[in-house]
Specification:
Layout: H1 4-15, H2 19-68, H3 70-77
Length: 78
């Protein structure tokens, strides 16, 4: 049966890579993260566009209702 120190040292010896290999792996990971960031920013822009499509007409309708019933609103407010 192996002890914890033997197992961890064996694991460390198999995962140790040279600096250029580790740099290459880090660059690949960075590229993946940048692609994910681009995907998320595209989704964010789409959601902001949908938000504008919903809230601008809603604001216009609210403004029209306020102007049409302005005298009733003033009476309610006193």
């Amino acid at each position: 049966m192996k002890t914890a120190t033997q197992t961890s040292s064996e694991t460390r010896s198999t995962t140790i890579t040279t600096a250029p290999e580790e740099l290459k792996l880090l660059k690949i990971e960075l590229d993946k993260l940048e692609l994910e960031k681009l995907k998320l920013s595209k989704i964010l822009l789409y959601l902001q566009f949908i938000q504008l499509l919903i809230f601008i007409p809603l604001g216009v309708v609210l403004l029209v209702l306020l102007t049409r019933h302005w005298d009733k609103i003033l009476q309610l407010l006193g």
